[in-house]
Specification:
The chain is an all-beta fold. Helix content is 0%, strand content 40%. The strands form two sheets. A three-stranded antiparallel sheet has the order 4-1-5, with no helix packed on it. A two-stranded antiparallel ribbon has the order 2-3. Strand 2 and strand 3 form a beta hairpin.
């Protein structure tokens, strides 16, 4: 399968490292990272997050969405 963009979304309120290297807090539904993944290899998003396919790039870091 070809690589595509995935948004990494906080499933519950959590702390994370922001792109500028600072510590940040994210509410549930906040996009905290973006990755390229084939959707089937043996990778999993970090605990407390979910990966959502975002081929159009609409879920940018800091955006919020329903979880």
């Amino acid at each position: 399968m070809a690589q595509q963009a995935y948004a990494i979304i906080a499933a519950a309120p959590m702390s994370y490292i922001a792109p500028d290297g600072s510590s940040a807090q994210a509410a549930a539904g906040t996009v905290i990272n973006r990755v390229m993944w084939d959707g089937s290899s043996s990778w999993a998003p970090p605990a407390g997050t979910e990966a959502r396919a975002d081929p159009t790039g609409t879920l940018n870091i800091g955006a919020t969405t329903a979880v």
